[in-house]
Please model this.
Amino acid sequence: MRFLPLLFAVSAALAQPQLDFLNHGRPVLDAHNCYPYDGRWADRIDRALASGFPVSIEQDIAWANGRPVVTHTSKTTGAEPTLREYFFERVRPIVEQALKKNDRASWPILILHFDFKSLEPETLRGVWQLLGEYESWITTAPQTSDPHVVAPLDRKPILAITEDADIQEQIFFRDLKPGERLRVFGSAQTGGIEAKSREERAHLLATLPPERLLPDPPTNFRRWWNNSWFEVEEGGQTRAGDWTPADGARLGALVARAHRLGYWIRFYTLDGFSESENRGWDQGYNFGSLDAVKLRWNAALDAQVDFIATDQYEDLDALMRSRARQHVAADHPRHQRDK
Model:
């Protein structure tokens, strides 16, 4: 047992360089549910890409007609767009231009985030094979027999990430042969929460120390931590009241815990809209108004959350750009510019 603190310290030290790997440590807009529903909202990927780079693109995945497709449900009809055509071929001109320019310091410019709606092995292996066809575009790392050895990432224009199911770690990491490279990286598993009711679980999520929620350091496969907003404000978006200093401290503590260990951290999904503004979004993620969600976006940006997930791509992008301009203006006041 006396070796455990040393293992954590070594693992965290090895993982720290990856924090700057992603956008030089600055937050990234995460385009939530960035795909059509029932043939509607087909412009989502274009809207997300219009925000500029880097940007994270969430693709929910299931299996239909022997191919991975993007869909909001595992009950596919066969009419869903394929992952190949909807994502990979859509971004081909962007990736090919990036490869030609070869500005490696800016890579990855696209984070491809998988949320699997279907975890059958054929679905996961189908995605693995598709990633292999585009491997020259994709950030990889060498396979390691010891998962606690966090290998360096080889920069490419796309970074693929996925979530925390054990079957994903098995297929995307443990089944790899020596010499093969990881093409996709999973999320941490949040510490077990024993609760007798939904209300008790919501309370524990919002009050347990970050060390209890994230007990383990990164591994070569598990490199980021995915969180709902329940971990920040008790009951999540629909129960949120006024944003308070205590809420900000809670958010900061969660981010600090992740970064101290060497993880990227994501929070989902921060929306604020009226019914007339709804473009196929989930009311469960709704703070109720743009003003309310802007308070949380600003807090997430101040805390250096790595992935800020929203359905309101343009609004978050506008806020991030405004803050960037203010930062430049603060660094270069008028009298200095006029010299």
